[in-house]
Design a protein that fits this description.
This protein is α+β, with helices and mostly antiparallel strands. It has helices spanning about 5-10, 25-30, 50-60; strands at about 10-15, 35-40, 40-45. About 40% of the residues lie in helices and about 25% in strands. It has a three-stranded antiparallel sheet with strand order 1-3-2.
Length: about 70
């Protein structure tokens, strides 16, 4: 049986809002993801393949993704 938390981790990235400074709209234009602002956090939601690509893109641009 698939663990729900593991599936959720492969379909979303949760970051502090400050980590997304300078990426206004860039992620939604470049990748097939949804970016939601929630209080002091940003949730990036997409398929596991898109989330991997977004994670790599953010890492290349100095954003630490756990």
């Amino acid at each position: 049986m698939t663990d729900a938390a593991r599936f959720r981790d492969s379909t979303q990235i949760l970051l502090p809002r400050a980590a997304m400074d300078g990426f206004d709209g860039a992620l939604e234009e470049r990748f097939t993801v949804t970016v939601r602002e929630e209080d002091s956090r940003v949730r990036i939601i997409g398929s596991p393949v898109e989330i991997k690509d977004v994670s790599d893109f953010l890492a290349r641009n100095g954003v630490t993704v756990a």
